[in-house]
Design goal:
Strand order of the largest sheet: 1-2
Structural class: alpha+beta
Helix content: 25-40%
Number of helices: 4
Radius of gyration: 19 Å
Largest sheet: 2 strands, antiparallel
Strand content: 15-25%
Number of domains: 1
Shape: flat
Number of strands: 2
């Protein structure tokens, strides 16, 4: 709960610390020598992942009233093919 309280306190301020991620280059094979031999991966804060998950779960109950009937993206009941 302390994490959510701190998030609430900084919500009006700059969220740059929460939005930052560390990009790390992982070699695709042994003896990687060129840039194409590496794969970038971004490491995001676990706090950001936790808050995103909680917000998405809370929004799922009201998403039908937020998104227009003409739109089908982001709704579990509809497919983008509809």
């Amino acid at each position: 709960m302390k994490v959510f309280h701190q998030f609430y306190c900084i919500a009006g301020n700059n969220l740059a610390t929460l939005n930052s991620a560390l990009v790390v280059w992982i070699p695709k094979k042994d003896g990687a020598a060129t840039v194409s031999d590496y794969r970038p991966i971004s490491l995001v804060h676990s706090i950001a992942k936790l808050i995103t998950k909680v917000l998405s779960m809370r929004l799922s109950s009201v998403i039908d009233s937020i998104i227009s009937l003409a739109q089908s993206a982001f709704l579990a009941k509809k497919s983008t093919h509809d």
